[in-house]
Design a protein that fits this description.
Helix content is about 70%, strand content about 0%. It is mainly alpha-helical. Helix 11 runs antiparallel to helix 12 and helix 11 (about 190-215) packs parallel to helix 13. It is globular, with a radius of gyration of 27 Å. This is Tetratricopeptide (TPR) repeat protein.
């Protein structure tokens, strides 16, 4: 993710001793792909940008598959930022952009409506009528059929269903192709209602990308994707979605940054609309947890009351789908708030209730792991350092390897930091070594993935 194609490459780039524009004009897609790869863009990234599978991109590059379909060529031009006319994709079929007069049929000979009597006013009215009819047709037309739009939204819904249980690295590659398709369609003229739906889907996809990057610890990219999600949600004009993406974005500074920014983002989410929603309850719960971490005890307790009241009004159904906020998720946030407030007895109670709801074999493994790490922090506060370190190690070790991401490892490191130096025994040393080994293993896996990318 985060791959950038420099537009200047197309104007100044050279391939095999010739300007890359020569290859573009011949629609030599294989040479274009090889040109990008030589500049550090992997074939997998190229595939995501142009909306084809990595295998197909590799076949095109090797010359095993030719690209001749106009819509595919157009998708490649748009995805790579190549001026369409350079690939002969101009509207008049010649590669040159038509003039304004050519784009509007008959406009060069359009008779002035206000000409004097005897100047054939009927001709002017008829021309206006033709122009109006053409304008109506243009406004009614769309490059997205209703069924295509339904399928895009259904695909996003399926990603939301599987996202919580899937490793973030796996999900990012799946989400990338979906984002490319929405990006391409959004660049074309769409009716307002269609564009609103596309923007809504883009907001959900971008939020999942941001969350996955956050879990992996790629804070800068996650922040940018959350910014994109907020922009898309605002463009959708869906107030509930605008609340949701802001509430989700508030998580990033809580785990990797200044918790005060979480408070600011959560309050921005709550200010979008006065209508209660599960996303508003999420924002309120996130605000309570951040205030507790900041040491603002009284404000945090008031925020907990607000979150509970909102949740009682709009409580979500039990679901493991992304962005739902059922009881167990609410308890997960309250666990963090109580932990940071030092109310360990309340925190233990909330954690037990939440873990019971997640069940012995949770389909969303990261939440129970983070709950267990909250419990470890409580154990530290209760001066049970050895038990805290051992339980934190167990929380990380029981996760599948692909789920031992930076968000979990950072919380485990927080447990180590909370243990006073004089109380750090062998269990603390073992936890520290294990976290370090997990990070090294994650880097090795990431490097191996990059090396295997064709």
């Amino acid at each position: 993710m985060g791959v950038q194609v420099d537009p200047s490459w197309w104007t100044s780039g050279v391939w095999e001793g010739r300007p890359i524009r020569d290859f573009l004009e011949r629609r030599d897609v294989a040479a274009t792909f090889r040109f990008l790869h030589a500049r550090g863009v992997s074939y997998g990234a190229i595939a995501a940008l142009v909306g084809v599978s990595p295998n197909r991109a590799a076949e095109i590059t090797k010359g095993k598959r030719q690209v001749t379909a106009y819509d595919v060529l157009e998708r490649i031009a748009v995805g790579l930022g190549v001026p369409r006319v350079w690939m002969g994709l101009g509207q008049d079929g010649t590669g040159a952009r038509p003039s304004i007069d050519q784009e509007v049929e008959g406009s060069a000979d359009f008779p002035p409506v206000g000409r004097p009597a005897g100047g054939r006013p009927d001709e002017a009215i008829n021309a206006l009528a033709r122009l109006r009819t053409g304008l109506d047709e243009a406004l009614a037309s769309s490059t997205v059929t209703p069924r295509q739009l339904d399928l895009i939204e259904e695909a996003a819904g399926e990603h939301m269903r599987i996202y919580p249980a899937a490793p973030p690295g796996v999900m990012l590659s799946r989400l990338a192709a979906e984002c490319v398709e929405v990006q391409i369609l959004s660049r074309r003229r769409q009716p307002a209602a269609v564009q609103a739906r596309l923007s809504g889907t883009a907001a959900l996809l971008a939020t999942m990308c941001a969350d996955a990057l956050m879990r992996l610890g790629d804070v800068d990219e996650a922040r940018l994707w959350y910014r994109t999600a907020i922009h898309a949600a605002d463009d959708s004009s869906d107030s509930r979605l605008r609340v949701l993406v802001r509430a989700q974005a508030a998580m990033l500074p809580y785990y990797f940054g200044d918790p005060w920014q979480t408070v600011v983002l959560a309050e921005a989410a709550l200010a979008v609309t006065a209508t209660p929603s599960s996303s508003a309850a999420l924002a309120a719960a996130g605000r309570a947890r951040a205030l507790a971490r900041l040491g603002s005890a009284e404000q945090a307790r008031q925020a907990i009351v607000q979150a509970r009241q909102l949740f009682e009004q709009v409580g979500d159904d039990d679901s493991d789908t992304a962005f739902r906020f059922p009881v167990k998720r609410m308890l997960f946030y309250l666990s963090g708030a109580s932990t940071w407030l030092g109310d360990t007895s309340e925190a233990y109670r909330v954690q037990d209730e939440a873990l019971c709801l997640y069940g012995p074999s949770p389909s969303v493994p990261i939440d129970p792991a983070l709950l267990a790490l909250d419990r470890s922090m409580c154990l530290v506060r209760d001066r049970r350092a050895a038990e805290a370190a051992a339980s934190a190690l167990d929380a990380v070790a029981t996760l599948p390897e692909a789920q031992r991401t930076e968000i979990v490892l950072t919380r485990a490191s927080d447990v180590v930091s909370a243990i006073p130096v004089r109380h750090r025994g062998s269990e603390t040393a073992e936890l520290t070594d294990y976290v370090r080994a997990c990070r090294e293993r994650a880097r090795t896996l990431a490097a191996g993935t990059a090396a295997l990318d064709p």
